[in-house]
């Protein structure tokens, strides 16, 4: 038996790491969804867009009578840019 400590002794088992990773990804996704909803709501209040919501895994914005379909990440950036140009 060795007196050298196991380098992995302080780390949880692989299944626990995978569970933690999945939980963190879900939390990050929830934060993004909240951020996206808040930005879109601000844009509606400022009359920069008419409507917003998810459609087929994409985020849909109605602006100037045209539908804009973006990934959630692209929609966050789009809305941030839109709101910043109106300030």
TrEMBL record:
Protein name: Uncharacterized protein
Taxonomic lineage of the native organism: Bacteria, Bacillati, Cyanobacteriota, Cyanophyceae, Nodosilineales
